[in-house]
Amino acid sequence: MAKRTSAAAARWGAGDSGALEILELLAAQAPLQEIDEVLLRVHDRGASADELARIHRAGRLGRTVHGLLSGRRRRELDLAALIETSRDLMGACDVDGLLRVVAQRARQLLDVDVAVVTLLTSKDGDSVVRASAGVCNSFHTGIQLTGGRGIGAVVRATGAPFWTSDYLTEPDIDHDPALDAMAAREGVRSVLALPLHHDGGSVGVLYLGQREVRPFEPAEVALMGSLTDLAAVAIDKAQWVELYNAEVAKLEEHSALAMETIEAERRLEVVRDHILGLALSARGLAALADEVGILLDGEAIVRDHQGGVVAGRESAFPAPQLPAPAPSPRPPVLLDGGVWQASVWAGTTWLGHLLFRPRTPLDPEGERILAYTAQASAVALRMRAGASELIGPH
Questions:
Q1: Left, alpha or beta for 35 (phi > 0: left; psi -120 to 50: alpha)?
Q2: Residue 359 burial class via C-beta count within 10 angstroms: exposed 0-12, middle 13-18, buried 19 and up
């Protein structure tokens, strides 16, 4: 260490304050212009040619070291920004929210006028703008972009970033007149486009635009490449989360429908037992006609197979022209005039009709209650016929 110090002293000369001042400025991370001020002061005091040569060499080395330190600080800041961005991306569960983060962060990191994120919608390269940052009227969210032409087509074909300092005059692009018109309306000159890669393919493109001619440095392109790599992984995660949530929502919907069905079946079972109990009661058919009127908000009568009214108010139902009974039991049917007819069957024997006039339209559950009442009416009619046969001989 002592030898190295002696060699430095021999090179710079004892008491060479300018070179030492440059070192102190570098150690203090002073602005580059202060190194230039040191050189001017040495010139102003009338230094010798030898001293000027040494101080200029010290200045060149100082600028080099300053650039290296500035580059390192910039990379540290970029890395910190990427880490912060990755936290934001991992915290976003919906794709649109995630893409807004990508557009905003990309615009901030490169200090550009406009950032736009598109996602593919077809194998032909058609895409849709899903997020944008900066004042941008043409490339707004939801606008459809046709694939096959423009800077996006170049990026998707090569799988690599593409940038140009003057988009509208770039000869290496198969220009799309519609896209060029939008870029012209926005006043965009310089454009950087990067693919969003995932599983070996492109899922979209990140566009960065500047309204003045600007070259994009390799370090800037590399930084945006790291951002798009993070974004592609986060997009895949968010899409899976959205798919999972959609499946969960479907399952919850199906579960709710199943619970509603179960609850409806329980209610109908209680009603069926209640109606059957009325059929077996002393009032029989009369109780059934009254009860179905209360349950379904209407009025009912029961006619036997000869057309006679055996329960209910006949005056409420002018004798209708009833269709012939089906050869077997069937669900209730709606006749002209808003009257429902449910055929009364006991096995394969037709016993009559249950007619019902609702005050409000019947829902499917009401139709089932009407069918249950018709079945219970068959029991009541059978019991009535049996009672008549028992009484008849006496």
A1: alpha
A2: exposed
The pairing of beta strand 298-304 with beta strand 201-210: unpaired
Report the 10 Å Cβ neighbour count for 237: 16
**Paired tokens of 365:** 């559950």
- Using a 10 angstrom Cβ sphere, with 0-12 exposed, 13-18 middle and 19 or more buried, the burial of residue 226 is middle
Distance CA 295, CA 209 (A): 70
How far apart are the C-alpha atoms of 235 and 227, rounded to whole Å? 12
d(CA 304, CA 390): 20
Tokens 């059929």: give the residue.
279
Identify residue 41 by its one-letter amino acid code.
Answer: R
C-alpha torsion angle, residues 382, 383, 388, 394 (rounded to 10): 130
pLDDT at 76: 63
User: What pLDDT shows up at residue 323?
Assistant: 63
Q: Looking at residue 13, what is its pLDDT?
A: 44
Closest to 85 measured CA to CA, from 41, 113, 115 = 115
Closest CA to 387 of 276, 328, 333, 310: 310
Q: Count how many residues are written for the chain.
A: 394
Task: Going from the first residue of the chain to its last (394 residues), give the mean pLDDT of each consecutive group of 10, the final group possibly shorter.
Answer: 38 54 73 75 73 77 75 66 66 75 86 89 84 79 81 86 89 85 87 83 87 88 84 76 83 88 85 83 82 85 80 71 65 82 82 85 86 84 64 46
The token duo for 347 is: 């096995």
145 forms bridges with which residues in the sheet? Answer: 127
Alpha helices by DSSP H, the chain: 2-12, 17-27, 32-44, 49-91, 95-110, 151-158, 177-186, 218-279, 285-296, 364-391
pLDDT value, residue 111: 87
Taking the model in full, what pTM does it have? 0.53
